[in-house]
Amino acid sequence: MGSPQNRLSALANQLRQYRPPAGSLGEDDDEEESSGGKVVSQVGFAEEGGDLRVILTKRSSKMSTHSGEVSLPGGKAEEGDKNDVETATREAEEEIGLDPSLVNVVAFLEPFLSKHLLRVIPVIGILADKKPFEPRPNPAEVDDVFDAPLEMFLKDENRRAEDIEWLGDKYLIHYFDYMVGNNKYLIWGLTAGILIRAASVVYQRPPAFREQNPNFKDKDKVLRRYLLKSRGRI
Q1: Which of 83, 100, 163, 221 is deepest in the core (most CB within 10 A)?
Q2: What is the pTM of this model?
Q3: CA atoms of 88 and 195, how far apart (whole Å)
Q4: Do 118 and 108 meet the contact criterion of CB atoms below 8 Å apart?
Q5: Using CA atoms, how far apart are residues 221 and 26, in angstroms rounded to an integer?
Q6: pLDDT digits (tens, 9 = 90+) for 66-105
Q7: How far, in Å, CA of 43 to CA of 54, rounded?
Q8: What angle do CA 20, 23, 26 make, to 5 degrees?
Q9: Organism's domain of life (predicted)?
Q10: Are strands 51-59 and 70-71 parallel, antiparallel or unpaired?
Q11: Are 199 and 153 in contact (CB under 8 A)?
């Protein structure tokens, strides 16, 4: 099996080779404008007892949007950010006190699109040593910090799904129930979708259930029409 350090090093090398599939939602400025902005999320992995864990937050109940929901650390890029890595690590530090020097960023997943038409860039980072990380949730943004087994998002256990239609496409919203002690968390929607994709990339196998993500190829044209229509321009 090898030591945890060797396993994480091998994983880092594997993920550095990952390239998002052709036809995923693009990176150019026009697409960013058409989707209403950009959000960067940090998908942070740590190893515990031989299992990969992903760091998650429960958003503050005082937040104006998505209050009380489970999410990945992250937020909108700020003017001073040099790149998506800096946005992801800055947001993780601000939200949960994760020192960027502890995180080895190794890959990006294909962008996802939120229901608010924000382009979400998942940045994968590895926390080689979890011991120095002591969560310090920002009370204005985060009620709780916890971690969950990444492989859970490939299994058809404690999962349900709902078919919906959005922007002319049909796809599935997945819901995962997860218990930590006496606390029950519901991981769903965009967060669940990102974690299903991340687990598929890390473990190099598809989930044991139908994933059915929306096809975002050429979706920028659809989004432009949607935004123009919503603003009364067509």
Answers
A1: 100
A2: 0.87
A3: 16
A4: no
A5: 12
A6: 668 999 999 988 888 999 999 999 999 999 999 999 999 9
A7: 7
A8: 75
A9: Eukaryota
A10: antiparallel
A11: yes
At 34, the pLDDT band (50, 70, 90 cuts) reads very low
Looking at the chain, how many residues does it have? 234
* Domains of the chain, start order: 4-19+26-230 (3.90.79.10)
Helix (H, G, I), strand (E, B) or coil at 65: coil
The shares of helix, strand and coil residues in the chain, as percent rounded to the nearest 5, are 30, 30, 40
Separate counts of helices (H) and strands (E) for the chain: 5, 11
List all residues 6 or more positions away from 67 whose beta carbon is below 8 Å from its beta carbon: 59, 60, 61
Strands 38-48 and 119-127, bridge-based pairing? parallel
Residue 180 to residue 84: CA distance in whole angstroms: 31
The two tokens of residue 96 are: 């949960």
3-state secondary structure of 220: helix
Task: State the average pLDDT for the chain.
Answer: 85
- pLDDT classification of 231: cutoffs 50, 70, 90: low
By CB atoms closer than 10 A (0-12, 13-18, 19+), residue 157 is: exposed
